[in-house]
Every structure is written in C-alpha cells, then in structure tokens.
Fold this protein.
Amino acid sequence: MIYRFEELTSTNDEAREARYTHGDVIVAERQTAGRGQRGHTWISPEGENLTFTLIVEPTFLAARDQFLISEAAALALCDCFREFGITTHIKWTNDIYHEDRKLVGILIEHFYSGMQLRRTLIGIGININQTAFDPSLPNPVSMRQILGHALAREAVLDIFTHCFEARYATLQRGDHATLAADYTAKLYRLHREQRFRLPDGEEFTATIEGVEADGVLLLRHADGELRGYRFKEVEFVVKSLLLEK
Ligand code: BTN
C-alpha cells in the first residue's frame, strides 16, 4: 500500500513505525530532514521529484547476505529507467548514474532479529522533473533533463515497484548469482581507471574489477595488487563536470 504525506522529516523515519509492513511505500512531498549516505542531507524541491521509502521484510535472508537487497534495489531502478529509454549504471554502492551524472540516491537501513534480517527500509530519491540544482552538488541530473520532457511521478513509482517485485522474486528464489552478476555488469566505470579517496584524504588511481558477495569493492592498484574496500573505507573522487567546461 502507498502512504502519502505532505511533509515528513524523512520517509525513512516514518517507515520505522511498526504499523507499516512488507511492500508498503511511504511517499513525502517534502522532507524537512531528508538524509543521504555518509551523513549527507538530501534536499529535493517540493513537487518535482520522488522521495519515498519502500519497506521490505526479508526474514528469509541472513544478515551477512544483506548486500543482496542493495543489489535488488539498484537493479530495479536500472530496469525502471530502461522502460523510459534511459541507460543507467550503478556507482558502488548504490547511486544510480546516467553517464557521469547522478540520477538517484539510495539510503538503505537494516534491522535484525539475531543473525537474520527482520526489516529493511529502502529510501530512494529520484530526480524526476528538477531542472535547477544546487551548484555544490556533484553532477546531478533529472529524468526531465535526459529526456527533454516532464514526467508523471506516479508512473515512475508504479514502474519502479513492479521492477522491484521482479528483482525481489529473484532474491526469494535464492538466485543470488543472477543478482550479483547483473549488479557487476551494471557497475559504473567497471574495468576502467578511476580516482579514489581514502578516509585520511589520500587519493589513488585504481581499476574497478568487481564487487564481492558482501559488497566489498575490488580495486586493482597500479602495483598490480587487488584490494577489497568496504563502504566508508573508500570513496570515488567525483570531478565536477561544470568546472571542466
Ligand atoms: C544519497 O545519495 O546519499 C542517498 C539519498 C537518499 C535520499 C532518499 S529520499 C527518500 C529517503 N528519505 C531520506 O531521508 N533519504 C532517502
């Protein structure tokens, strides 16, 4: 069921309420404290985009397999955009990019029961009709900017939920291999050199070789060594496309 709100602090906050169950979607026109990854905020002008949280209860999954939910959500978004004729890639761990610009941000929160997953909140912000962005944002883009026309936000949500159902069914069948292979195939800058930054600020160039089942990013360093990085252990160095012009 879809629950719509004019204003929330964050759809992920509302989705924590126990009254919402598997498959429910919380949509907000306005978030007063929208949250992004790595402690960032998510700001979305009212009426232009989609900000929502999908609640799932993957109780059949072990906590160590939680990255499969990220894979399913990111792939469902790519599937959804394909329906609109937009090619996208997944910037590890789960930003959705069109070419070198960010179209979607995802914030996933897991809750556990012992060693099993109990509930997962998949918070998604899709840039749909926005045409002016804060210049401090790293290369954002909207569906409208890509396609050249405005879109009905409801249609995007409807198609996304159908695409997610299909990917979630793959997960329920236990077909982890398909999700992992499709996710890797969709990785932004796969097998290409990319600048990365460590938490201490040091930068290096490496080639993305893939992602392990638990979400660890595999990078081939210039010295030939293959090293794995967890989320927060490394970040992409994103160059502003505006500054290059
Ligand atoms: C990121 O790119 O850093 C993740 C952004 C996630 C934004 C969405 S909008 C709906 C949901 N509610 C939030 O507060 N955040 C997510």
Notes: Residues 10-12, 31, 34-37, 40, 42, 51-53, 95, 105-107, 123-125 surround biotin (CB under 6 Å). Residues 2-185 form a domain with the BirA Bifunctional Protein; domain 2 fold (CATH 3.30.930.10).
